[in-house]
Input
Amino acid sequence: KCLDLMQGGEIFIPKIPSIRIMDLAKAVAPHCKYKLIGIRPGEKIHEVLVPEDEAHNTIEYRKMYIILPVFHYWDPKDHYKGHKTLNHGFKYSSDINKDWLTVEALQKILRKDEVK
Output
């Protein structure tokens, strides 16, 4: 879809659900024992997909966010008809996402992949 939309220089970020790593572990191996060891040096807890400092260059379009290049020869108003501009300070990251996958939803996705 993005190849059909792109004009050059955009970054496309799909609106996707977040997951908790423990839910993923329970979905993949529900009967296994696990041990929490804490966060490791350099490990991130959440992923930031649209940082606040990019909000002014980002639009919401259909089921995605698009970070526009600072310099572009085309008008986003003409190309991305119906897009919404985002408020100053907008951020899209896994910790504030409203859409989360459950263990059951993850297992359903995993079962679909087994069939392929």
Summary: Strands lie at 11-14, 48-50, 58-61, 64-67, 84-85, 92-93.
